[in-house]
Design brief:
single chain, 294 residues, mainly alpha, Farnesyl Diphosphate Synthase
């Protein structure tokens, strides 16, 4: 019985651990702004989130969806079996156990994140098929909530909850709000066939790009205010410099899709994710170094 439930390479593939790379910028942003960093907590929190909690959400989502077409990080996903369900549960248990080493607060936050991710995919609730509620759930938990959760866990001194801090928390949600619809743009037909009406499907191809661009712009304004309030405008200029390749590719992709909607493809989406995640990660690592050597 134990042998039958042991995961194979297909189950591990569907956990999509490398996909955690695309969710890493929010963690690194929090890391770059942490005061009196607790290094041990930072390492444990990173491992718990990126190697266990995020992959567990991916695996559970794949088990519920039973995808036959491309999904984030996998062009040709294998069949999701019952083993995947148990593997995702095991990953959650390990991630939550690790979070207790950081503290009860971090554990409760991760548990709330886990419940939200299950509600997003679970057939009985299926927030994924509700375009507005699903969208708001994702941008809240993967954006501002994660930033606040990580910053609180890895800082020896707690953040000051002023207007500047609130602006950066909301900015993180706007950043996810810009990326999230773009990750759905190549799945319109597959989502419609499964009964999931996503926000990208509601917006259409052109509307998705315009909406995402507006979300990125709002995030940019809020991040400007945050760095202005902390008297670090040079850091904002660095942020803008690292953002430039993202803007260039976003504009190029948008123009190609307006001419041919087939360009709203899995490959183009993954390229957008890779460029955005890499540029933002490098930016926040740079800010972390600058804040560490001051």
């Amino acid at each position: 019985m134990i042998y039958q439930l042991a995961p194979g390479k297909n189950e591990l593939k569907l956990m999509r651990i490398p996909f955690s790379y695309f969710l890493m910028p929010v963690f690194l942003f929090a890391l770059s702004q942490a005061k009196d960093l607790n290094v041990a907590n930072a390492v444990i929190a990173f491992i718990a989130l990126h190697l266990f909690i995020y992959p567990a959400s991916n695996g559970y989502n794949s088990y519920m969806d039973q995808d036959e077409t491309s999904i984030g990080g996998l062009k040709n996903p294998p069949k999701a079996t019952r083993k995947l369900f148990f593997l995702s549960f095991a990953f959650d248990i390990v991630g939550l156990a690790l979070s207790l080493l950081v503290g009860l607060h971090f554990f409760l936050c991760l548990f709330a994140y886990m419940l939200a991710s299950r509600a997003y995919s679970y057939k009985g609730i299926r927030l994924k098929k509700r375009p507005i509620l699903g969208f708001l759930t994702v941008i809240f938990f993967q954006g501002g909530f994660t930033f606040w959760m990580v910053l609180s866990a890895i800082s020896k001194s707690q953040p000051v909850y002023d207007a500047g801090f609130l602006s950066v928390v909301v900015a993180c949600s706007f950043l996810i709000a810009g990326v999230y619809p773009l990750t759905q743009i190549y799945q319109h037909d597959a989502d419609l066939a499964s009964g999931d009406i996503t926000i990208s499907f509601r917006l259409g191809y052109t509307g998705t790009f315009l909406f995402s661009g507006m979300m990125f712009f709002c995030a940019d304004l809020l991040i400007f205010y945050y760095f202005y309030s902390t008297q670090k405008l040079f850091h904002f200029m660095l942020f803008e410099a690292f953002l430039l390749p993202v803007i260039i590719y976003f504009t190029y992709w948008f123009l190609t899709v307006t001419k041919d909607t087939r360009q709203a493809s899995f490959e183009k989406t993954m390229s957008m994710n890779l460029i955005a995640s890499t540029c933002m990660s490098l930016c926040f690592i740079t800010l972390f170094i600058l804040n560490s050597v001051k």
